[in-house]
Structures are given as structure tokens and as C-alpha cells.
Amino acid sequence: MKRLMIIDGHSIMNRAFYGNPDFITKTGQHTGAVYGFINMLLKIRQDLSPDYVVCAFDRMAPTFRHLEYEEYKAGRKRMPDELAQQFPVIREVLKHMAVDILEIDGFEADDVIGTLSAKAEEEGDEVYVLSGDRDTLQLASEKTKVVITKKGVSVVEIYDAQKFMDEFGITPTQFIDVKGLMGDPSDNIKGVPGIGEKTAYKLIKEYGSVENVLAQVDSITMKKVRENLVTYAEDAIFSKKLATIIRNAPVDMDFDQLRSDEAYDEDELRRLFSELEFRSLLAKLGAGQPAPKVEAPPVEIHGAQRVDKAEALPEAMEKLLKSLDEKDPWVALYYQTVHDPKLSRREMEWLILTTPKESLFVAPEVLVDAHARPALARILEDGKIAKIAFDIKDGYTIFGKHGIRMDGVHFDVNLAAYLLDPADGKLSLRELTQKVYPEDRIPEGLDGEIFLARKLFTFHEGQEKAIEDTGIHELYYAVELPLTKILSAMEIEGFHVNEELLDEFTVKFKADIDQLEREIYDLAGESFNINSPKQLGVILFEKMDLPVIKKTKTGYSTNVDVLEALKDKHPIVEKIMQYRTVSKIYSTYVVGLKAAIDEDGRIHSTFNQTLAATGRLSSTEPNLQNIPIKYEMGREIRKVFIPHDEDSVLVSCDYSQIELRVLAHIAHDANMLEAYNQGIDIHTKTASEVFNIPLDEVTPRMRSNAKAVNFGIVYGISDFSLSVDLGITRKEAKDYIENYYARYPQVKAYLENIVEEAKEKGYVTTIMNRRRYIPEVREKNKMVQAAGVRLAMNSPIQGSAADIIKVAMVKVDEALKRQQLKSALILQVHDELILNAKKDELEVVKALVKEEMENAVKLSLKLEAEESVGNTWFEA
């Protein structure tokens, strides 16, 4: 007995489309439905182990049902383009997954499925029908099981005849009779007016079929039902006919000719999954496929040695050194790191050092042994040995904390992947290999890690050429690669914290939270869980009868937008907003920072260089870039950050309006450039232009509104959003924006041109050629496209600002080293650099940082940086 699985293609694609996120590749190809379909197929194939898999699709040609009934399926919404473009893709995928595709003009996929299942039953085979359409339940029998998907395609329920009868109280074939009576709005099948699902089931359970119901209609006690059955008897019979799946369609199928396991083409699937950016599916390849008939030969790893004891390391290292090319010595470093919560830092789980001929796996117990470090330093500190790595910053930091100052790093594959496509910066080396080299078979276990380590040489060769072709040589070699060492030094340096003050804040914040709780309970007239949206909703909208702004599936919405809309309605709303703000700052920044303090009294944040698509740096474990400054209590938190010792102070230097200056430069707008070059305040200048008044007549409110317009334009703000921000009418906001564009015509032209460029190329670039791919801008969906347009407008500006601050960091670091100063960079927050400056170097450092930041890059206007000094970050 064979097992046949039949997939209802359109149904599963439809389910997967609406049940999965709308994934889009960088080329603009939608893939969410394909992704969901494949995941379901892999899972079902693994669970059921079918001998054959067939997928039935509907044809575009009309079926016999359309010919008999013109209104059949009329009124159905047209298939979204985002789904339609995925059908050719799934067909190609199925071909390489050894899945036969069947479709016949004049018949629906259901009829193909019905016919195939009937033929298989005749031959004594077992059948599984995979569908999201409950119509197929009529096919359930002893040998045919219908697998119905629920919740997209993530959950299934399997019906045979007995399970169907147990659940519905009728046989699967009687399900057609139920449809005949109740109709089916999704297919525009009429049924009998006035008979719903409950009544239809009741009648079929009692009479057995539509024909019997009509034959014994006089015995039906429900008057209106009886009358409608008489009036619409022909409709009932015809509706049953339309709902019946044909089981003798002209399907030319010989089960012995179905594609078997040998047709499964993993190489082609790797290629396809790589193009579709299915990284997790690349990793799964093989898990859902049939067992191969002939095993592929394993990749042989030659010249690999494992070192488990520190005393064995010197000899192993000597062997590795001897394998180096004397004229062009290269070593690749590959390691696994893990965050150690006890130490608030990352540590290395294992390390692989490899030449093209020899590889050395250093076990974790050796890495933590101080006796092993001199042997490691022989290679790592030798600047004459060129090194390739994957995420070298972590290597610098971890080795640096153990006293090894690594030198000679010429290439970082992770960093190159990020610059070539920002989405790839998040991938592990294994995932990146599966994407770029899908034909590779990565061995399991240690052999696999050695294989990946050696693959770094291959990546280096390909990425080096791609860097030149993309025009990012300077960005990579002069900015991003040197920055890895600077960021590592900042991580090691850390930021000193006043623990006593942090403890005082703990007491203060708890008292503030308790006080706000009491005030809220007094205003509510009772105590309740303020953190429970459900309980809060009852208080606000039932007890206090405040207007309901928005409802969710679970009750009333009490999110920030709702509270913002209600804050003038009752004083309790303002208190709740304060309570949430104070509680969040307390839990995230008071409790969170306390837990992150290391043994040396400093917080050693981790700086992420390859995450943000804009090119910006981010900070984690903990995030020091996101300490809120909007609220006074948030700014207060900065008081706990102090210099490293009594001989130091903090110096902060940040760019003035860098994004607007970048906009003026790349838009070549004469009005904006004139304002900046003459030292006129740009917001006052904009207010003067937009409101058509002299500079000296601009009021503070006008300047504030102009500031909102200036920064809003950078982010592609709409008139609606601006009206909300400024509390003005939409018409006024629209007039502001139109007047702005009239006064700054080159800005308008630039924003229009950059959107067209993004649509044409699929990406935008910064002043240093940093790319950001924006497939959303080519979308048919208006909301997605609008988001893509905003990204296209803003990314070159924000990305160029990120380029500039990174160049400044490199130049500041070089200047500090050149002058042999002991002061050091310790934090970057977007447009601001913070240094721990020695008091006897203070004036030199202030001048140095300001000069390097203002001359980081050459623009058509002057960059301005403002420095300040303090004994806390708050003061600085």
C-alpha cells in the first residue's frame, strides 16, 4: 500500500499569504506565502512520510460550474498582486521538491483532488488531502484523510470519515447536502433563503439528503423553512450539484509515473532559497526531504587539530605557523561568543585559527587558562600575519580583556557582508554561507566549524571584489574596519557609574511610583492593578465613563495614543501617563543599570556595528544610547555616569543640526546653504520663509513650528502627521509644507528624485556610497509603498550623518594616539561623542575633538560641533 499526499495549491497559498508576514526580498519579490507553504510541506512530509506528493492548482479557464452558473464565485475579491506574483515561484520550488503539479481546464483543483483520491482508493492506497478549504471534507473516508489547516498554516486537524461523523453528526458525503441547503457565500452558491448552518445540519441529520428533505417537505414544522424549501427546491438541488466535488474528471495520472525521491534536487533548492532569502529554510534543507537513495560523500577536513589542554597549545601553534605562506601569510579567525550575565560581558566559547592547509580548534577550557595566552599571542599580536575574521570587534574586546592586543587584521567578512547588504549583517557565518554559497554542504559538528572557518578565505576573495565594484572601498577600509578596534576599546574602557547615587535613585523612584499610585487610587475611588490594561479600561471607560477611543479583541485599548487623546478629559489620565513613564525609567534604567555594573564599577556596553540599516551604531547589554532625555527624571539618570577617576572630567561634543546640514548639502539648496554659511538660525530662517515675514519678526512659536517642519521634511512627514504634531488643522499643515517647498525648491526636487532613484535601482546611497535596499518603494500596497518612500527620503540623510560621525570617531581616535594622550572615547550617541578626558589634557582634548568633528568630511557648508564639560554626563 502506497501513501499519496495531495495538496490543494491555491488554498494553501492563500492560507499562507494571510497567515504569514509579508516578506519581501531586496529585489522586491514577495515571498511570505511561498515561505509558509514550504514550511507546511516540510512539516507534513516529515510527519506523514508520503511515497508521492501531488499539488493541484486551479486553472484560469472557466470551469463547468461557471458555464452552468455565471454567478459562480462572483463577487470574490481579485487576488492581490503580492500573492499572484508568488505562484510561479512556488511552482518552481515544488518542481525541485519532487512534487508533481496537476491542473485541468474546465475543472477546479478540488475536482482533480477528488478524482485522484478516488483512483488511489480503488488501488488500495492511503490518501492525505492537505487543504485550507472545508469543502474538501466531503472527501473524507476510511482511506482518505483530509488535513485542514487552521491559523494560517501553522495548525492542522486531520479528518477521516469517523472523526467527521463524531464531530458533525453526519457523513462526509452528507456535508454536500448541508451545503445545498445553506449555500456558500464564498463561492456565491445560493442555497435556500432563510436556512442557515444550524437548520441545514438539523434537516440533513433528520432526513438524510436534500432530495429526502424536499420529498418530505410537508412534515417540516418550521413554516417559513417549509415555504422556502417549496419555493426554492430547484435552487437547493442545483446548489448541491455546484458544491459536489467531481471524482471522475479526465485526469491522466499513472501513480507509477509520479516523481519519486530521486527527483528531489537539493542543489536547485539551495539556489532558490538563497535568491528568496529564506535563511532558516536553507538551514532546514534535508529535514523535510525524503531520505536520499545514495548518500553524498561527506566533506573531508584535512589538517585539523583539536587542543583541549593549555600545555598542548604551543606545539599546535608551531605547526600552524609552519603552514603559513612565507610570502603572503594569512590566518582566518572564527569563534563563538556568548554573553556572560555574571560578568556583564561577552566571552569566547571556542576559537578556530586556520590557514588554508592547517586548522586549530581551541577548546573553551584552554581559552580561559592564562598559561595558554602567550601561545595565542604569537599569532594574534603579530602584525605581519594578515588576519581575516568574522565579527572582529568581539575578538578585539575578548582578547583585549585577557591582555592580548591583536594586530594585523586586514578583513572582517561580517562587516563586508553588512556593507554590501545591511540585512546580511545579522547573519551568522553559517547562515551567510548558506545564502551566498547555497551549493556548499556544511558538515556536522567540529568539521562543520572548521569548514566555515576556511570558508572565510573564499568570502574574502569575493567580497573584496564586490567592495571595489560597489564603490565602498574608502567606507570599508578607512572607516568601518578601523572603527571595529575603536569600538572594542570603548567597550573595554566602559563608563564609570556612581553606585551610591543609583541607590538613591532607587529609593526616590520607588517613592514617586508609590505616590503616583496613591493619587491614581484616590482619583479612581478604589485600588486596582494600574499595569493591567483590562482593569484600567474598566476604571476609565465604565466607572468614569470616559469616551471609548479604541477597542481591541480583549477589551478597551489604553495605549499611549488613547491616553494622549483623553488627557484633557480627567486628571487621572495625566497621572497614569506619569506613572507609566516613571515605572519604565525605573525598571529599565535604574534597576537595569544596577544589574549591568561590572566588578570594576563601570558599565561595559556592547556596540553593534552591523545591525542598523541606516549605518548607525547601536548599543546593547545595556543600551546607553536610549536613556530618555525628553523627561526631567530621564535626564537625571545621566547624573550617575561619571569620570573614571578624580583626575578626569567628561567631555561631550555633538554636531549641530547635522541631518539638516546634510540635506542642504545633498539637495544643493541655495536658500538653506546661504542660511548655514551666513550663520543664520535655520529654524528662524525657515519660519521667515514659510510665513513670509522678516527674520526679526519671527516669534518663538513660529520658530518652533518651523523646526517641526524642518525635521519633519527629513522624515517625509505628511500634512496629517504635522497637523497632529503641531495641534493645527490639516489644511494649515498642508500650507506649511507647500510654502516650505516653494521656498526650498531644490529640497523638493531632491526628495522627488531620490524616490524615483530608489524605485529604479532598488536602493539609495549616502555621501560615502553606503547602500540601503528599499524594496518597499516598488510595492503595489499603498501603505507599504508610502513607508518605502519615507525610507528613500530619509535614509541618505540619516545614513550620511552616520558616515560623518563614524569618520569623526576614527579621526578623533587617531589624533588622541598621535598626540599620545591618555584621554579616551567612551560613548557615541548618534551625533554626540563622549570622552573621559584627563584634566591636564582638557583644553587640548576639547580643541582636538571639535576640530576633527568639524573637518571629518568636506561638504558644501561648514559642519559645527559644540563641546561641553562636566563631572557627570548630565552636566556635560
Description:
With 876 residues, this protein is α/β, with parallel strands linked by helices. The chain has 4 domains: 3-168 and 245-261, 3-Layer(aba) Sandwich (Rossmann fold); 304-494, Nucleotidyltransferase, domain 5 (2-Layer Sandwich); 496-603 and 611-642, Taq DNA Polymerase, Chain T, domain 4 (Up-down Bundle); 668-794, Orthogonal Bundle (DNA polymerase, domain 1), CATH 1.10.150. Helices cover 49% and strands 14% of the residues. It has 36 helices and 25 strands. It has a 6-stranded mixed beta sheet. The chain has a 6-stranded mixed beta sheet with strand order 7-10-9-8-11-12, sandwiched between helices. InterPro entries: 5-3_exonucl_a-hlix_arch_N, 5-3_exonuclease, 5-3_exonuclease_C_sf, DNA-dir_DNA_pol_A_CS, DNA-dir_DNA_pol_A_palm_dom, DNA/RNA_pol_sf, DNA_polI_exonuclease, DNA_polI_H3TH. It comes from Proteiniclasticum sediminis.
Can you tag this structure with a few keywords?
single chain; 876 residues; alpha/beta; Rossmann fold; Nucleotidyltransferase, domain 5; Taq DNA Polymerase, Chain T, domain 4; 4 domains; six-stranded mixed beta sheet; globular
Q: What layout of secondary structure does this protein have?
A:
Blueprint: E1 3-8, H1 9-19, H2 32-48, E2 52-56, H3 64-68, H4 81-84, H5 87-96, E3 100-102, H6 109-122, E4 126-131, E5 144-150, E6 155-159, H7 161-168, H8 174-182, H9 197-207, H10 210-215, H11 223-231, H12 233-243, H13 266-275, H14 279-284, E7 304-307, H15 313-322, E8 330-340, E9 345-354, E10 359-362, H16 364-367, H17 373-380, E11 386-389, H18 392-401, E12 409-412, H19 413-420, H20 429-436, H21 445-470, H22 473-493, E13 495-497, H23 499-524, H24 533-543, E14 551-552, E15 555-556, H25 560-566, H26 571-596, E16 602-603, E17 606-608, E18 618-620, H27 632-636, E19 641-642, E20 648-655, H28 658-667, H29 670-677, H30 682-691, H31 700-714, H32 719-726, H33 730-743, H34 745-761, E21 763-765, E22 771-773, H35 782-818, E23 824-829, E24 832-838, H36 842-854, E25 865-870
Parallel strand pairs: 1-2, 1-4, 2-3, 4-5, 7-10, 8-11, 11-12
Antiparallel strand pairs: 5-6, 8-9, 9-10, 13-16, 13-19, 14-15, 17-18, 20-24, 20-25, 21-22, 23-24
Helix pairs in contact: 1-2, 8-9, 8-12, 15-17, 18-22, 19-21, 22-35, 23-26, 25-26, 28-34, 28-35, 30-31, 30-33, 32-33, 33-34, 35-36
